[in-house]
Write a structure and sequence with these properties.
about 40% helix; alpha+beta; 4 helices
Length: about 100
């Protein structure tokens, strides 16, 4: 029997460490977002343990990615700065001026 297959209609529970690492949020920010109802609430597992449904967290991440909108799409179409000629990233060589004249 393959133990890596997920059972249809079920979802994996994630601990807070994994949620924080995946989302890039601090613990305080995560709980603030939950209080504001902008992040999925955890599932109470026991008196001192909670977990987040992986599907809920991934949907939240997908919605954040979708919020990038047209401005992000426009930036992606522009050639990267480091490959452009005269880029601000490339070093600028200047001639020293003779101040004695």
């Amino acid at each position: 029997m393959d133990t890596n297959k997920t059972i249809p209609g079920t979802c994996r529970l994630m601990q807070i460490r994994e949620v924080l690492q995946l989302c890039g949020l601090s613990r305080a920010t995560l709980y603030r977002e939950i209080k504001l109802r902008s992040f999925p609430a955890p599932v109470k597992l026991s008196a001192r343990s909670v977990g987040w449904l992986q599907d809920d967290v991934m949907q939240w991440l997908d919605s954040r990615v979708a919020q990038r909108g047209p401005a992000f799409q426009a930036i992606r179409q522009i050639e990267p700065r480091d490959t452009m000629k005269g880029s601000a990233i490339s070093p600028v060589h200047r001639q020293a001026r003779d101040e004695s004249k």
